[in-house]
Structure formats: structure tokens, C-alpha cells
Write a structure and sequence with these properties.
- The protein has 14 helices and no strands.
- The protein is mainly α.
- Helix 9 crosses helix 12.
- The protein starts with 11 loop residues before the first helix and ends in a 6-residue tail after the last helix.
- The relative contact order is 0.15.
- Bound molecules: fe (ii) ion (2 copies).
- One fe (ii) ion (FE2) binds next to helix 5.
Amino acid sequence: MGPHAASRPLTLSEQADELEERMMNELNDKVATKSALFNLADGNLDYVSGAELQARNPGKYFLMGADPRLPKMPDKPTLIDFFKHRFVSMNHLLQSATLALKAGHEEKVVLACLLHDVGVAGFIRCDHGYWGAQLIEPYVDEEVSWAVRVHQALRFFPDESVGYKYPDMYLKYFGPDYKPEPYIVEEYKRARVHKHYMTARLICVNDIYAFDPDAKVNLDDFVDIIGRNFKQPKEGLGFDNTPSSHMWRTLMWPTRFL
Ligand SMILES: [Fe+2]
Ligand SMILES: [Fe+2]
């Protein structure tokens, strides 16, 4: 029984939370916890302390490792393992990279296209370019991570020289009045004069804005390019003590208590 029960009837959202919590606990010997961010995404600032959560789950310990509801990851995970077992939307990345490959771009550009939305696929939509770049930074050429970072800003600004227009999809998604925030405008201005500008621009050009659920794409087509251009650590992603190791571990174990 939750803490609300004594004082007032549960709201619908509290009932849903309690059901979700019960289901979580039935699935696990151990109690999986939701981080603050996951609750924020549901529009609430709820915080349940460890003591309270344990009181609701008598006799149980908190999960401090793999969540059994998610696909099992190997001890030394590779980028391919994350593609297969953690990224929620591989198709868009593969379609974009396939387009870049067919257009004959160099491998760095193909890799940048393959990884451009790992932020969305693995973490979060907000500022996905920045998250994605930080995640891959220790393992790729700085041109690739830089391009992934700034494609987020560039995609709002046309470049006639390569036939890139403001995406129709954005008009549909954000409305005709949407204007990028000042930090995006500033990022664009800096990127416009950067030596790797065209790499980031090519991400936008090869970004698929009309998603085709039936497109035939295959991760196997990119295994060699990943092998040559992504420095897979021998210890496995998450265990190699880089500035983004903790991000890979969080992707692996998103419901650890700490
Ligand atoms: Fe993107
Ligand atoms: Fe994209």
C-alpha cells in the first residue's frame, strides 16, 4: 500500500504509478527504481526515498545491476551490442547511413550518419546532438563527434549549395511559427565557419526526414566501417574509464538504485 492511501483516494495517475510499481516488483526479485528524469518525463516531481521504497517492498533489496526485463548485455559490450540490445530505433540511423554510403561519401561521414541520432535512440530527445556526441567522443575522430553535436542546430537552417531545405517534417511537427532558440542559432553561426562544417551538413542532407518503415537496411552492412572507425575498447564500452563510460553503463543498467 502506498503512502497516499491513508489520507485520500488515489488519483488516476497515482493508481497507474502503483500498478507500474507492482508490476516492476513482480518481474524482479529485486526492486528496480525509476530515476528523477523518468518521472519528470511523466510531468511529475515525485521523489520516493530509499527507506520508503523499501517499506513498500518488504524483504526486498534494490536492483544494483542488470534489469532482467531488458535484453542481456555481454560482459564486454561493443557498439554493435548497444545497437542490437539498447537502441530503440535502429532503422532511422541505418537508413541515413545507407543513403550516405550510396552517395559515395567517405567512411567518416557514413559513420557520422550512422551515429547522428544515438542520443535519441539511446537516451533522450532534448539536445540529442550534444548527448550523442558526448557518448561517442572518446571513440571516434573528433570530426565525427563534432558533426553529430552540431547537426542538431544545422538541420533548422537551409543550405542551398547542397540542396538542403528546412524539412517539411519540421513544419508539420513544430508548426510554421517555430523558431530555434538563441543557443541553437549561436551554435549554427559557429558551425557555419568551422572547418568540419560540411561533415555536419552532410548528416542533415542524408538524414531521412520521411521515415520509411519498409526500407531494407542491415546493420551488417556497417560492421566493417564501425570496425575501422570506432575505437572499440577491449574492456567493453562502460568499463574503459573514459569521460563517457558512465553514460554507456547507464544505458546498460538504467534502473540501478545508484
Ligand atoms: Fe538528429
Ligand atoms: Fe536524424
